[in-house]
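Reagents: none. Just compute today. Myo-inositol-1(Or 4)-monophosphatase.
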Amino acid sequence: MTGNERDFQMIKEKAEEWTREAGGYIKEQMKLSFKVNTKSHQHDLVTDVDKGVEAFF
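Predicted 3D structure written out:
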């Protein structure tokens, strides 16, 4: 395995870890009440959970 391949593997593993962590956060937050707002259009919804995940990343 070359240095670039090791780097890619490390990045991939970290991205997968963060994605699993964010998924856990979403699952827990969805059990609670959350606020829904709109963005630029009434059909473009965003929740506090969305904002929390965005802040995490």
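Strands lie at 36-38, 45-47.
Action item: order primers for follow-up constructs.
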